[in-house]
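Weekly modeling sync, notes
Attendees: AB, CL, MP (scribe)

Item 1: holo prediction request
CL wants a bound-state model with zinc ion before deciding which constructs to order. AB pointed out that an apo prediction alone won't tell us much about the pocket. Agreed to run with the ligand included and paste results into these notes for async review.

Input as submitted:
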Amino acid sequence: MICETIDPKDPKESGPDVSVITQRGNLAEIVVAQLASRIDSGLYGPGDKLPSSAQLCEEFGVSRTVIREALTSLKVAGRVTARQGAGVFVTEKDAKTLNFEISRIDDIRSAMQIIELRLGVELQSVALAASRRTPEALAEIARAYDQLESLDTTDAEIEAEADFDFHLAIAKATRNPHFPRFLEAVRGEISLDLVLKHRQSAGGYQAYLKKINKEHAAILAAITQGDVKGAKNALALHLEESLNRYRAMLDEPATVAEE
Ligand SMILES: [Zn+2]
């Protein structure tokens, strides 16, 4: 749906030079630059509501798709926040502190894609681990769990590695060598997601770690008890939350929770 700007507005009010925007080029980027400069200049202050998509669409003379793309970009960069049903607001915190690698849409997409893949593989991995576990394999999973839990670091990569090792120990407990081999093969991609998650948690890092440990504890408990269904549920809970958060950032529909 295109809403063209038909009648020229009062130049004092319309702000950006509409003729620039109608030129070829990445329209969304131009809209992002315009909106970002309004936020930087304080025209839209912290906590202020942005004009509606329809208003922006009309003002910039671009399609809704372009506005949507521009807003996603600003959301991902941490400049604005969408509140369900209320609209889009300028982020309260200093935008610079939020501008991590997470601001790169490609990184978010990669992280999301690897979790989609992990869900498929690791649901089977925890199920097999729960039914085939040996005391040795359980001890190794428990060791990996303790390792992450006792970690005293704010280094994203060290923490990501400890998280990965926990999942790797489970993969080994399947007694099917392809599971650990497969996880090792995508270790780099998995780490990207884990590091992004860690960085997103900056500020609430201890709470983040506590939450991860609690989720890992639930997975470990279910595997220990040989509870296949419980292990799958706990793993799904562990992975789906971040998957849905990434999807929300990219404006993609969330997974419908499995019964
Ligand atoms: Zn984990």
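Recorded for review: The radius of gyration is 23 Å.
Action items: CL to compare against the apo run; MP to circulate these notes.
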